[in-house]
Amino acid sequence: MPVADSAAQDARLQPAAPTMPMRAAVRTVVRVCQLWLFRLPLFPRACLRQSLALYYVLARQGYPVQIHFGVHKKGKRLHGHSWVTLHGRPVAEKARTEVFKAVYSYPSEQTGHCQEGEALQTCR
């Protein structure tokens, strides 16, 4: 692979500088995820759809977010849920995430101590 191609690929993998405030990005993603089109059986459950979209958009903007996948046992049934956190706090979440046992989180550990609204590149 030529050096120029490698440098271009590395640049694409780096988080971008935020192009909009986090609250605006969250509102936009949540609104899009709630469109009637995304309620068709072709798309995954609402929490998965929203958490994947939120994680993708906010991580690409440089916010140090984590995505979590968890389960909660109620009687003999297991209920699954997914959500996104920023600094350990759920983002745009209506469900009580504390009742779910996270079975997988990505990334597994946060690095740096960013303030809300601060891009990941500036707080490492």
Please name the defining characteristics of this protein.
alpha+beta; 124 residues
Structure write-up:
The chain is an alpha+beta fold and 124 residues long. The protein has one domain (20-123). The protein contains four helices and four strands. The protein has helices at residues 3-13, 22-33, 46-60, 120-123; strands at 65-74, 77-86, 89-90, 101-106. Strands 3-2-1-4 form a four-stranded antiparallel beta sheet, covered by helices on one side. α2 (22-33) packs antiparallel against α3 (46-60). The longest helix has 15 residues, at 46-60. The chain is globular and about 45 Å long. The model is unreliable at 115-124 (pLDDT under 50).
Please provide the count of β strands: 4
Q: Residue-averaged pLDDT, rounded? A: 78
Cα radius of gyration in angstroms: 16 Å
**Total helical segments:** 4
Largest sheet: 4 strands, antiparallel
When the domains are counted, the total is 1
Shape: globular
- How are the strands of the largest sheet arranged? 3-2-1-4
Distance from N terminus to C terminus (CA atoms, Å) equals 30 Å
Class from secondary-structure proportions: alpha+beta
Question: Uncertain spans, ≥5 residues at pLDDT below 50?
Answer: 115-124
Helical content class: 25-40%
Write the layout of secondary structure elements.
Elements: H1 3-13, H2 22-33, H3 46-60, E1 65-74, E2 77-86, E3 89-90, E4 101-106, H4 120-123
Antiparallel strand pairs: 1-2, 1-4, 2-3
